[in-house]
Amino acid sequence: MLQSTVKIRFKLHFPSILSDNVSVMAKETDLDLNKILQDCQIAQGKDSNAVIANLANLETKYPLEEMTFIYNKILQNEHDPEVLMHIIRRINAYKPQECLDTLLDLMLLKETFKDNLSDKENYIDLRVNVARVISNYKNNKAVLPLLYCMNNKNENYKIRLACAEALGKIGDKYAVTPLIDLVSDENEKSIYVRESAAQALGMIGDMRAVDSLVHILEAKKTFLDKFTFLKERVIEALGKINSNNERVFKALKNSLEDESPQIRINAIEALMNSEDERAVSLIKLALLDKDPEVVENAVIALYNLEGKDVLDEIILSEKYSKNTKDFAQNIIDEYEEENA
């Protein structure tokens, strides 16, 4: 498939070369964890850079299995966000199951973490990153804590949207109904949280979300620019769910006439992925769009669906502008150059 050098909306997705999880076998150890923490100056109010340097030195002395116990103990005792962030990055590299409960406690600000919030903004960023690391475990045990934080309207919106994204990545269908409720909640103050809920529903791909997502597209137009971004995420989600639903197809067709060029581009992408035989004829209408970026994405989509023949058709037709024909020719030239 062609990889155009032109900047386009559609992204390429590559499979990860890393495994989702590297299990660490728990074992009995004779580690004196309290002494190790004391030597590393954990929870002593020391400069974070010095503590991190101590930890880096520690990592050269102990095998990974033993570092798991040490990391977990540090997470339960340290309060400096920078030190905790360092530990969380290290944990994310191999995701030991022994640390999951402590990560969930940290995200929920349980126990010792509650009383150590002198640096509120850094703690917010820390918990956002904790939610992301938790999502990489893909463990259903995390679903209820993530739902709790996502649905807590007193939480910072960054944490709530990180939890919504994490739920999408984990993919547990138990989260579908709460995510539908959130994306449909017109009283929700944060449009960003609703956007994240829409993205999560697309990642999970459950058909139950279709009606609620289509309803958002069918809603009356609003003067709020932020609502446009929600519609963009909704169209992306519908494209991923790929339901072959007539109501979805109609909503995508109508989105090709939306005032926002980005929504029109998203609709083209969703139609391209829909496997509906009517998609090609609809996308061809977008070749006459007044926005050049929409036109370029329509050309790319048609090429993905129909191959080189559709590019020849565009070049030979009198209906399309010179810029559109030149773009189609550039794709052919690039293809031939790569395959020379």
Structural features, described:
With about 350 residues, the protein is mainly alpha-helical. The two termini are about 15 Å apart. Helix content is about 60%, strand content about 0%. It contains 18 helices and no strands. The model is unreliable at about 1-30 (pLDDT under 50).
Major sheet summary line: none
Radius of gyration: 25 Å
Shape: elongated
Task: Please give the number of β-strands.
Answer: 0
Taken in chain order, the helices and strands follow as: HHHHHHHHHHHHHHHHHH
Low-confidence stretches: 1-28
Tell me the strand percentage band. under 5%
Count of separate DSSP helical elements: 18
What's the mean pLDDT score?
Answer: 86
Report the end-to-end length measured between terminal Cα atoms.
15 Å
Quick tags:
mainly alpha, 62% helix, elongated
Please sum up the structure shown:
The chain has 340 residues and is mainly alpha-helical.
SSE inventory with pairings:
Layout: H1 33-39, H2 48-58, H3 64-77, H4 81-92, H5 100-108, H6 120-137, H7 143-151, H8 157-170, H9 176-183, H10 191-204, H11 210-218, H12 225-241, H13 246-255, H14 261-272, H15 279-285, H16 292-306, H17 308-316, H18 322-338
